[in-house]
Design a protein that fits this description.
The protein is mainly alpha-helical. It contains 12 helices and no strands. The chain has 2 domains: 141 residues, no CATH class; 103 residues. The chain is elongated, with a radius of gyration of 28 Å.
Length: 312
């Protein structure tokens, strides 16, 4: 075996031994406090999202079932990985001994170590594939609107004061202003709403024209009709439906820019996209739903939510 190969093997050996036998030390008081803060921050971020989804009893129960299955699978995998790791440690120890005693390493030791390392790599690949499978089940539990909320969610511990107590993470200021306006609109008496809706939409259209450009008459009439129909739909929604859809509705309530402006902006976005390139999800990589929900530390949160639901 040449010198370069031996050097690579020795470096790999040292790295694995450092990971497996890292120096144990007690945490300092300030580190314990930091860990506690991170623990609560992670849970609050999760609760902000969970509360904003308005999950029903069946959804809470189904998500719990997925997390229980994940917990069982991880426990089984950890036991297998522990056994395989101990065997890999043994193989590396044998390689180390051979390297210390002689410049020539037994090929059988190298092969045994490589085979054992491949077993651990295969376990990791199995785990990634299983996570993708679990995420597929989760995606079937959420509604289309809820999946949209999850995709747009920006983790946040304490929303800013201008978010009107929104508990779904950090949001665009324009969205929050629109949500505030929609809430006020829904509080009007019906006769008040009938009298206000036309002037409200006219103000929105005028602001859009001041920012972007003038509509053609036919285009303006179509946009007024769209916003009017949407405003009435928002006004007649029940509270739960409104809370689930409010972020999508806030965007829909923004007037669409004149057609010539949209075309120009679309061309600019296409140019930017071509420059930056789009990120493609790799094989066996979970999406945002999996990253946010496939965490067994959420089990007690969902258990509590389900108990509270049953107690209503």
């Amino acid at each position: 075996m040449n010198t370069n190969v031996k050097r690579i093997l020795l470096i790999a050996l040292l790295a694995v031994c450092f990971i497996l036998h890292g120096e144990a030390r007690s945490l300092q008081p300030e580190e314990v406090l930091t860990q506690n803060i991170k623990y609560y921050e992670a849970r609050i971020k999760a609760l902000n999202l969970i509360n904003g989804l308005y999950l029903d009893r069946d959804q809470l129960s189904a998500i719990l079932d997925v997390l229980y299955d994940l917990q069982d699978y991880k426990q089984e995998l950890m036991e297998r990985a522990g056994e395989e790791t101990r065997l890999l440690e043994k193989r590396y120890a044998e390689l180390e001994s051979d390297l210390l005693d002689d410049d020539i390493v037994d090929d059988r030791l190298e092969t045994a170590a490589r085979v054992q390392k491949n077993k651990l790599d295969n376990l990791e690949m199995q785990y990634r594939k299983k996570l993708v499978s679990f995420e597929s089940v989760l995606n079937g539990i959420f509604t289309e609107k809820q999946l949209g909320i999850i995709e747009d969610y920006k983790p946040c511990v304490i929303p800013h004061k201008d978010t009107n107590n929104a508990r779904i993470g950090q949001s665009d200021g324009a969205d929050q202003r629109a949500i505030t306006g929609m809430r006020r609109m829904r509080q009007l008496n019906r006769w008040e709403f009938e009298g206000a809706v036309s002037s409200m939409i006219a103000r929105q259209i005028n602001r859009m024209e001041q920012k972007k450009g003038i509509y053609g008459q036919q285009e303006r009439d179509a946009e007024v009709e769209r916003l009017s129909d949407l405003a009435w739909r928002i006004y007649d929604m029940d509270d739960v439906e409104f809370e689930v859809e409010k972020y999508d509705l806030a965007r829909e309530m923004q007037p669409v820019a004149p057609k010539n402006v949209r075309k120009r902006e679309q061309n600019m976005k296409m140019k930017d996209s071509n420059k930056q390139g789009n990120r493609v999800k790799r094989k066996n990589e979970i999406g945002k739903t999996g990253r946010l929900f496939l965490d067994v530390r959420l089990i007690d949160i969902f258990e509590t939510k389900l108990e509270n639901y049953a107690a209503r």
